[in-house]
Amino acid sequence: MCISRMQEPNDKRPDDTALDEQRRTLATQIAEIDAVLPGTLVTRSTRCGKPTCRCKADPPQLHGPYHQWTRKIDGRTRTRLLTPEQAARYQPWFDNARRMRQLLAELEDLSLNAAREAEDCPEWGWGKSARKNTGLGAGSP
């Protein structure tokens, strides 16, 4: 299928309209996302180094839970302990960041598919020789 550069809405094939609608839907969902926090929030329980501590008992009574926010800053991993209240308050923001990444990945996939189809379109002037250099060929992700 060849997607033309600029077609009037009446000239679009049903497949083109469906793809446009999918892209618009993804863009709308992305726009509705509020605050996002990068990184990961994990809850851990740990053992300490004291040989007679309760965490060494049978069964062990671990220390915690500790809420840790881990993220990259300037290429280095940074971890910050959060209170239970902070973890609860910011959890939706971590969820939003995960959802944002999912939606962007879907939008990228749709765009890559559209670009692959455009490569095979004579109107665009993209031939098989151009495909080798673009990273958009049939074997590309």
Give a verbal description of the structure.
The protein is α+β, with helices and mostly antiparallel strands. The protein has one domain. It is built from three helices and three strands, in the order H-E-E-E-H-H. The protein has a three-stranded antiparallel sheet with strand order 1-2-3, covered by helices on one side. Helix 1 (about 15-30) packs antiparallel against helix 2. The protein is elongated and about 75 Å long.
How would you classify the quaternary structure?
A: single chain
Could you estimate the helical fraction of the residues in percent? Answer: 40-55%
Sum up the overall morphology in one term.
Answer: elongated
Question: Low-confidence spans: pLDDT under 50, at least 5 residues?
Answer: 3-14
Number of helices: 3
SSE sequence, one letter per element: HEEEHH
Please give a quick description of this structure:
This protein is of the alpha+beta class and 141 residues long. The protein has one domain. The chain is built from three helices and three strands; from the N terminus they run αβββαα.
Give the secondary structure arrangement, pairings included.
Elements lengths: L13 H18 L8 E7 L16 E11 L2 E7 L1 H36 L8 H7 L7
Antiparallel strand pairs: 1-2, 2-3
Question: What labels describe this entry?
Answer:
3 helices, 43% helix, disordered N terminus, 141 residues, alpha+beta
